[in-house]
Amino acid sequence: MKCDFKKLTLEEKIAFLTGADAWRTSSANGKFHQVFMSDGPNGLRMQNDDGSTKISTAMPTLSLVAQTWDKELAYLDGETIANDCIENGADILLAPGVNIKRTPLNGRNFEYLSEDPYLAGVMAREYIKGVQSKGVGTSLKHYCGNNREMHRFTQTSEIDERALNELYLRPFEIALEAEPWTVMCAYNPVNGVFASENRQLLYDILRKKFGYKGLVVSDWGAVHSPYKAVRATLDLCMPCDERYAENLKMALEKGYITEEDIDFCVGNILNLIEKTKNAKKKINYTKGDRHANALKIAKGGMVLLKNEDGILPLKDGGQYLVAGGLSKEPILGGGGSAFVQTDYKQTPLAHLLKDKLPKAEVEYSGEPCRSRGDCNRVDVQGAKKSYIKAFGKDAVIIIVGDAHESESYDRVSIKLDPEYVTAIKAMARVNENVVVLLNAGSAVDVSEWIDDVKALLLVGYAGEAANEATASVLTGETNPSGKLTETFPIKLEDTFTGSETGDGFSEWYNDGVFVGYRYYERYGIDVMFPFGYGLSYSEFRYDNLKVEKKGYCDFIVSYDITNISEKDGAEISQVYVRDVFAMVVRPEKELKGFEKTYLKAGETKRVSVDLDFRSFAYYSTAYSKWHVENGLFEILVGSASDDIRLSLCVDIELPDDTQQSQY
Ligand code: BGC
């Protein structure tokens, strides 16, 4: 698109480079449409003039959306949020976030998708397509290396070239296939240079190597020096930064930047203005539909982590106790810029269970944990009453939650508050059928109490349809089908980073490419629940793996999945690739494809997944590009990273001139 620079004075051009206010771009004295941006990613978060938050649909958090492993649901999520954006006049949704979950302590993990770059990238790509299909732009964030909140404004993420390419840039690279209208740079420095002035990241990699044609916006307040940001091709600084005019004029005079540098950024801003002005925005969901979509996604993303003796689904005619105030008001999402304000009133879980199980007796007790993060430390008598009610019931359902997940700070522990642990254990002493519901957006250490309970359902931060989705899964109306997108370690000390947070200046990512399951598998560290794991009320069988060669590195992997139970369900099958012998250290295996397949009881479907060059490549620092080494690769098809059901070997033989000499 051609933009007419002639209409603009230098002052007007400079004014475009920073916001007119907290959320809008400049109008150049009323001549241009002002682009209005708003948060993301778990629903629309828009501020009213008085600082309060507008009401919108609280969708499940991205952590839960990812747990669906369902590309269509990620698209639906994006589309639904776009409807709220259109209704409230937002041109750009500041989402999705694709930063790798490198440590479970990261306070923003609930906003992110996975510890695996492929999964995070694919789900984000579909979400972006969904939002933008409605004429609303997105902002792919936080580019890059923003993997904890602690020291996020100052601490360098020091990442070697290979890990940067294979893990931290990769989800961005994949998500860019959906052509997000904007990309947001991170607060933190990467390898010693602030992301906002890191020309290697913004220009050499994002624009040249990845071919990105859109606009780069700063995270809010991430620009330290206006001219250094312009020099790095950061187009737009948000929010309004009063220093821009003076600083850029000084830099022009001194020759630090040229007018062409400014024009480059202004060109991108004008393109975005045109795009948003001409976008065909179309609302296609009523408020009711949006809630129904939130419910559909929430149902698809809850993960059943333990289910001993088939305690779930709950049977009609049983006697149940629902304990804990969170069953009336579950935690819908995390805090900070991703907080969404809904006006949807939760129906208490006990009521919903009663509706779905008409012959059952369902009692509610507010004790021992009355509300978010506040188990009853004072009312010992109340707590006792609750334990007495639990006695003799067919099951006790207790909901516990991590109330410490938010932007701006990290968790200090991945254990539940001790009061919750006491409550779970006390319940388990009076009733052997305890079912725990876990409200969390990242991994939790469950090791102290997991053996005391019969079932554990990760309800996550499920948004405004939380209780309906939970009741549906508990009663078997919905067959659980979510799987973990991050490993649950046994304890924090088992993670590579442990409780280390960096010193405020730099954090050395000396785990290299071994993050998440790549780390636990390499060092043989036992975990509580592995990556890709999740139970169903159904059972699935895998058969007939076939790998068809279509080109040097192009293969079609196909296999049958059969639902061998009497219940309809869905199975997420995962395709991993293992380099059998490599000249560089490589992870034991890496996820390169996945599919969620809905199967009626007894039904068989053939699933097919494409593999290409990137499925076999590692980032070679010797060649400065992705490289596939000839030889054998194992194709592993499984139900979880630790549950491989089928495997086959393929031999890759690329032309000799692409390979190093053999010895
Ligand atoms: C967050 C961004 C967010 C922005 C605007 C920043 O603090 O890091 O994710 O989009 O604020 O609210």
3D architecture notes:
The chain folds into 3 domains: 5-276, TIM Barrel, CATH 3.20.20; 300-529, Glycoside hydrolase family 3 C-terminal domain (Rossmann fold, 3-Layer(aba) Sandwich); 540-658, Immunoglobulin-like (Sandwich), CATH 2.60.40.10. It is built from 17 helices and 28 strands. It is globular, with a radius of gyration of 25 Å. A hairpin with a 4-residue loop joins strand 25 and strand 26. The longest helix is centred in the middle third of the chain and has 20 residues, at 259-278. It has 663 residues and is an alpha/beta fold. The strands form 9 sheets. It has a 6-stranded mixed sheet with strand order 9-16-15-14-10-11, with helices on both faces. The chain binds beta-D-glucopyranose. Residues 39, 94, 141, 219-220, 337 line the site of beta-D-glucopyranose. Beta-D-glucopyranose is lined by residues 39, 94, 141, 219-220, 337.
In a nutshell, what does this entry contain?
The protein is α/β, with parallel strands linked by helices. It is built from 17 helices and 28 strands.
Round the Cα radius of gyration to an integer and report it: 25 Å
Give the proportion of residues in helices: 25-40%
Unreliable spans are none
Q: What is the domain tally?
A: 3
Quick check: average pLDDT?
Answer: 95
Shape call: globular
CATH architecture of the largest domain: Alpha-Beta Barrel
CATH superfamily of the largest domain: Glycoside hydrolase, family 3, N-terminal domain
**Beta strand %:** 15-25%
CATH topology of the largest domain: TIM Barrel
Structural class: alpha/beta
**Assembly level:** single chain
Largest sheet: 6 strands, mixed
